[in-house]
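Protein modeling request. Please complete all fields; requests missing the sequence field cannot be processed.
Requester role: graduate student
Desired output: 3D structure, C-alpha cell encoding
Chains: 1
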Amino acid sequence: MSNNNSNIDLITGDPKKAIRTLAWPMMVSMFLIMAYNLADSIWVAGLGSNALAALGFITPLFMVVIGLGNGIGAGANSLIARSIGAKDKKTADNAAVHAIIFTIIISIIAPIVLLPFLENILLLMGAGQATQAGLDYGYIVFGFVFVILFSSVASAILRSEGDVKRAMNAMAITAILNIIIDPIFIYTLNMGMAGAAIATILSALIACIVLAYWIWVKKDTYLSLSLRSFKFKWIIMKDILKVAIPSTAENFVMSILGLIMNAMLVIAGGTVAVAVYTAAMRILQMFMIPMMGLGTAVLTVAGAAYGSHNYNKLKTGFSYTIILGILISLLFAGIMFIFAPHIASIFTYTSTSAALTGQITEALRYLAFFLIVLPVGIVPSMVFQGVGRGLTSLIITVFRSLIFESIFAYLFGLVFGWGVVGMYIGVVFGCGLGCVLAYIWSKIFLNTYKKDMIKKYGNVEN
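Delivered output (462 residues):
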C-alpha cells in the first residue's frame, strides 16, 4: 500500500515531476504498441502492395475500435484522477468498475454491428483488389475486440492512480510477443493477413490476463474494482461518458480523415499512393509517441489539479508540457527528416515493395513538419479531457483534422493540382492552424478558471 500511496502523492504533488515521471513509462508503452503495429506493417508489406493497402483501409476502422477503448479509458482516467484530487476514493473505485462493465457491453455490441457490413464498407472505401486481404484481417481483429478494449481500459485505470510502470509492463509483454509471433503466423504457418490478425489478438490476450491478475487476484492496486465497490450511479456514468464519447469521437474523426485521405490519394495516385501514405503514417505515429506520452501524463495531472481546485498546478502542468513537447518534437522531426531514406527502407525489403522507397522518403520529409506544431494542439486537448471537458477537446480535433487538414489537403492536392505532395503539405498546414486554435482556446479557459477560483475561494490554491 505504501507504493500505492506514493503514486497518489506523485499525481497530486509537483506537476513537473509528475509529468516527467508519468510520461516516460507511457512513452515506452506506446512505443512498444506502435512497434508491433509497425511490425504488422513490415511483415505484411512482404505480401505485396495489395496487402499493405488492405492494412491501410482497415486502419481507419481499427482506429474506431481503439478509440472506444481509449475513450472509455480517458473518461475513467479523468473522473478517477479528479476524484483522487478531491480525496474521494469511493467515487474513484466506483468509476473504475463502471468503466470495466461498460467495456464488456461495448465488446459484445461492436462486432455484432460491424462484422456483417465489413465487406461493403471496404468496397465503399475503394479497397478494390485489397478487399479480401482486408476481410481476412478485419474479421478476426473485430471479432475478438474485447481483448483490445479491456487491455486499453484497464491500463488507463492503472495510469489514473499513477501506476504507470505496471501498465507499461503489460503492454511490453504484448508488443514483444506480437513482434515475435507475427512472422510465424504470416509466413511459417502460411496464414497471410489472417495470421497477422491472430498474432495481434493473442498478444493482446496476454496483456488482459496479466492486468486481470493484478486487479482481481493479487489485489494490490490503490483502487478497488470489486463488485462491492460498484453501485450504479448515472452521474458517474454521465461523467465518464462526458469525456469518453468525445474522446471516442475524436478517434472516429481521425478515421474519417483517414477515409478522406485514402479516397483523395486513390484519385491522385491509385492504391500505391495509399500504401505509401499508410507506411509513412505508421512511421509518423512512432515519432509522435513522446508527445502522446506527455499528453496522457498531463491528462492525469490536470485531472488531479482540477479536482483539488488548484489553478497553479493546472497552469504549470499545461505550460511545462507544451514547452517540453516542442523541444522533443523538434529533435524527433529533425531525425525523421534526415534519416527518411533509411527509415523508408524498412518497408521496402522485398522486390514487390522496393519501388516504394523514394515515395515513402518524400512523404516522411514533408510530414516531419507535422511533428513540430503538434504539441501546441495535443496538450490543450488532453488538458480539456483531464478537467472533464471532453466536448471542447472534440471540437478542437474536428477543426484541426476533419476541417483544416482535409480541406487544405484537398485544395493543395487536387484543386491546385499539386498531387500527393500537395496533400502532405495541406495536412501539415491544416494541423498548424488547428493547433493555434487549440492553444488560444485553452488560454481563455485557464484565465476564466483563474478568475472563478479567486471569486469563489479568494485565491488560486484551494
